[in-house]
Design a protein that fits this description.
With 155 residues, the protein is an alpha+beta fold. The longest helix has 17 residues. The strands form two sheets. A five-stranded mixed β-sheet has the order 5-6-4-3-7. Strands 1-2 form a two-stranded antiparallel ribbon. It has two domains: 64 residues, Arc Repressor Mutant, subunit A (Orthogonal Bundle); 77 residues, Gyrase A, domain 2 (2-Layer Sandwich), CATH 3.30.1360.40. Helix content is 47%, strand content 20%. The radius of gyration is 16 Å and the shape is elongated.
């Protein structure tokens, strides 16, 4: 089955693109289009270009990389306006709310920071789940989010 349009198709497509870039050397858009086709997703070159821009991907030394991984903390600060709030959910999770369509880019910036308090992120369209190991690391992660995005912690 080939998925072409809609929010679910876009999210799945962007997840596959992000995984391909994280897991190996991707040098061309054609390689990414081939990967999408193998996963049963169709995309045009212009759609792929928009996806790469939304994911914060750029080309460096002949390979596609996440721009956030190459940049300083200023990149995360650029997301301060799109992060609306964050709150704890139990001892191991933080929920971050963003503007519509902004969660993937914010999650990639968080992941690129490689903060040891943050185990992983999972992004939808406007919501990010951040997993932490325990309550102590959750507190550390909350402080880090406040540094990066401002004091938007809902208690």
């Amino acid at each position: 089955m080939i998925v072409q349009h809609g929010t679910a198709g876009k999210q799945e497509r962007q997840a596959i693109i992000a995984e391909a870039i994280r897991n190996g050397s991707v040098a061309t858009q054609e390689q990414l289009l081939d990967r999408l086709r193998k996963e049963g997703l169709a995309a045009t070159q212009s759609t792929l270009s928009r996806d790469l821009a939304e994911l914060g991907v750029r080309k460096a030394r002949g390979q596609y990389v996440f721009a956030a991984a190459e940049e300083t903390e200023d990149r995360r600060l650029n997301y301060a306006d799109v992060v609306l709030r964050f709150t704890t959910c139990g001892p191991h999770m933080i929920v971050v709310n963003t503007g519509q369509g902004q969660a993937p880019g914010v999650a990639l910036a968080i992941d690129a920071a490689r903060d040891p308090a943050i185990v992983s992120t999972l992004a939808g369209d406007d919501t990010i789940f951040i997993a932490t190991r325990n309550r102590r690391t959750q507190t550390v992660a909350l402080r880090r989010l406040q540094q990066w995005f401002g004091d938007k912690h809902e208690r």
